[in-house]
């Protein structure tokens, strides 16, 4: 009988260095995502001195900034936190698609985990729900996914 090998990440942030990329656009939503993520990481052992918050204009700039951070060699992981809310033009579709693709490419090319916490909502009410009310806090979820992925990657 053979034994199955299981690799799983522990939710332990001790000793890590994390960058949080946060958009200023829709900052009343994004600030709640950042607060949730920061609280989560601190409760899981991350020293506040090891958190760097990078404020950027909007979601379209996220891929470039995330790429620069993951390629710097200074961070074990990056969190991408923002909120895009659909308007009356196709602008929403372009911004969301390019931001998502670019963030994924930065992660794939660098091998550094990026927590994806970019809300793409049809209404402001949906964004509020996902930033700490009845839909939970997607900043917390992105931080948890990033943390677990960091710890899995260390074992591979």
TrEMBL record:
<feature type="binding site">
    <location>
        <position position="116"/>
    </location>
    <ligand>
        <name>5-amino-6-(D-ribitylamino)uracil</name>
    </ligand>
</feature>
<comment type="similarity">
    <text>Belongs to the DMRL synthase family.</text>
</comment>
<feature type="binding site">
    <location>
        <begin position="83"/>
        <end position="85"/>
    </location>
    <ligand>
        <name>5-amino-6-(D-ribitylamino)uracil</name>
    </ligand>
</feature>
<feature type="binding site">
    <location>
        <begin position="59"/>
        <end position="61"/>
    </location>
    <ligand>
        <name>5-amino-6-(D-ribitylamino)uracil</name>
    </ligand>
</feature>
<comment type="pathway">
    <text>Cofactor biosynthesis; riboflavin biosynthesis; riboflavin from 2-hydroxy-3-oxobutyl phosphate and 5-amino-6-(D-ribitylamino)uracil: step 1/2.</text>
</comment>
<dbReference type="Pfam" id="PF00885">
    <property type="entry name" value="DMRL_synthase"/>
</dbReference>
<feature type="binding site">
    <location>
        <position position="25"/>
    </location>
    <ligand>
        <name>5-amino-6-(D-ribitylamino)uracil</name>
    </ligand>
</feature>
<comment type="function">
    <text>Catalyzes the formation of 6,7-dimethyl-8-ribityllumazine by condensation of 5-amino-6-(D-ribitylamino)uracil with 3,4-dihydroxy-2-butanone 4-phosphate. This is the penultimate step in the biosynthesis of riboflavin.</text>
</comment>
<dbReference type="GO" id="GO:0005829">
    <property type="term" value="C:cytosol"/>
</dbReference>
<feature type="active site" description="Proton donor">
    <location>
        <position position="91"/>
    </location>
</feature>
<dbReference type="GO" id="GO:0009231">
    <property type="term" value="P:riboflavin biosynthetic process"/>
</dbReference>
<keyword id="KW-0808">Transferase</keyword>
<keyword id="KW-0686">Riboflavin biosynthesis</keyword>
<dbReference type="InterPro" id="IPR002180">
    <property type="entry name" value="LS/RS"/>
</dbReference>
<feature type="binding site">
    <location>
        <position position="130"/>
    </location>
    <ligand>
        <name>(2S)-2-hydroxy-3-oxobutyl phosphate</name>
    </ligand>
</feature>
<protein>
    <recommendedName>
        <fullName>6,7-dimethyl-8-ribityllumazine synthase</fullName>
        <ecNumber>2.5.1.78</ecNumber>
    </recommendedName>
</protein>
<dbReference type="InterPro" id="IPR034964">
    <property type="entry name" value="LS"/>
</dbReference>
<feature type="binding site">
    <location>
        <begin position="88"/>
        <end position="89"/>
    </location>
    <ligand>
        <name>(2S)-2-hydroxy-3-oxobutyl phosphate</name>
    </ligand>
</feature>
<dbReference type="InterPro" id="IPR036467">
    <property type="entry name" value="LS/RS_sf"/>
</dbReference>
<dbReference type="GO" id="GO:0000906">
    <property type="term" value="F:6,7-dimethyl-8-ribityllumazine synthase activity"/>
</dbReference>
<dbReference type="GO" id="GO:0009349">
    <property type="term" value="C:riboflavin synthase complex"/>
</dbReference>
């Amino acid at each position: 009988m053979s034994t199955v090998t299981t690799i799983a990440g522990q939710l332990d942030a001790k000793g890590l260095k994390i960058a949080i990329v946060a958009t200023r656009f829709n900052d009343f939503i994004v600030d709640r995502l950042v607060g949730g993520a920061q609280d989560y990481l601190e409760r899981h052992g991350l020293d506040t001195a090891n958190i760097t918050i990078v404020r950027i204009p909007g979601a379209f700039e996220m891929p470039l900034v995330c790429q620069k951070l993951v390629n710097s060699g200074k961070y074990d992981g990056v969190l991408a936190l923002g909120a895009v809310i659909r308007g009356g033009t196709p602008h929403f579709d372009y911004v969301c698609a390019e931001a998502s693709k670019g963030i994924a490419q930065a992660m794939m090319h660098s091998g550094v985990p990026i927590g994806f916490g970019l809300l793409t909502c049809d209404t402001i009410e949906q964004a509020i729900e996902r930033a700490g009310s009845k839909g939970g806090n997607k900043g917390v979820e992105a931080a948890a996914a990033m943390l677990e992925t960091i710890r899995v990657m260390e074992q591979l």
